[in-house]
Every structure is written in C-alpha cells, then in structure tokens.
Amino acid sequence: MMRRHRILSVLLSCLAAAHAQAEIFSRVEANSGVTILTNVPVDAPTQGKLSRHAGTPGTPSSAVSPVSFPKIDGARQSQLDGERRDILQTELQDEQQALARATAHKEPNDVIRRHTLNVEALKRELARVP
C-alpha cells in the first residue's frame, strides 16, 4: 500500500511538472525599446512585435540590447558614477552617525542591527562604484 502511494505521488509530481511548462512571449515597446516577457500574448499592434520564446520558465533569454537603446558616453558615465558615489558616501555618513547615536542611547538590538546592516550594505555598494 505504501509503495503504491509513493509511486502515485511520483507520477502526479511528474504530471504537475509537465503541466507547469508555459509559453513565454516577448514584445518590444516601440517608444522605449524595452523588452517585456509575459505568458499572455498581446495582439494589439501598438504594443510592438510579439514573438514566441521556446524553452521553459526561468530560462534566461539572450541579453541583446536593441539598436535604439540609449547609449551613454564615457564622460557622462563617469559623471554619473561620481554623483552616485557622492550620494552613497553621504548616506553612509548619515547611517554611521545614526548607528553611533543608537549605540550611545542604548537603543534596542534590532535598531542597532538595522543600522549596522545598512552601513555594511552601503560599503558594499560603494565598493561597486567604478
């Protein structure tokens, strides 16, 4: 009896997995060039070309940017990176001060932990800025 139950469970699991496969469609937004992936086909002509993706859910599609995708030159990207770095450094200083205040005022451990994690996250993010 137990063996039949196991076999039945395995068969049902296999059937459920086979049924879980879905068709994945993509469309490219005409205005922005953004590719939208969905399981619902869209037939509206204003929404861009619709194509069917083969494969299973969770399978990454190729990461090709459209020709119309906006490009940023090196100088502008450096400027944006500098601005990002400045913002992150300001946030880091503010969070370090909040951590010092929380520690000095003997705030609850969850408050101190939140500030500590925020400081660590901001340091990681700063390390990623070129």
Q: Main attributes?
A:
mainly alpha; 3 strands; about 130 residues
Description:
With 130 residues, the chain is mainly α. It is flat and about 65 Å long. The protein contains 3 helices and 3 strands; from the N terminus they run αβββαα. It starts with a helix and ends with a helix. The chain has a 3-stranded antiparallel sheet with strand order 2-1-3, with no helix packed on it. The longest helix is centred in the last third of the chain and has 31 residues, at 74-104. The protein folds into 2 domains: 20-55, no CATH class; 74-128. A hairpin with a 6-residue loop joins strand 1 and strand 2. Residues 45-50 have low confidence and may be disordered.
List the helices and strands and how they pair.
Blueprint (H helix, E strand, L loop, with lengths): L1 H18 L4 E5 L6 E4 L11 E4 L20 H31 L4 H20 L2
Antiparallel strand pairs: 1-2, 1-3
Topology, number of strands? 3
Helix content: 40-55%
As a whole number of angstroms, the C-alpha radius of gyration is: 25 Å
Mean pLDDT: 78
Q: Distance between the terminal alpha carbons, to the nearest Å?
A: 63 Å
Strand percent estimate: 5-15%
- State the shape: flat
Sheet having the most strands: 3 strands, antiparallel
The number of domains is: 2
Structural class: mainly alpha
Q: Order of SSEs, N→C?
A: HEEEHH
- The number of helical elements comes to 3
Which blocks of ≥5 consecutive residues have pLDDT under 50? Answer: 45-50
Strand order of the largest sheet: 2-1-3
How is the quaternary structure best described?
single chain
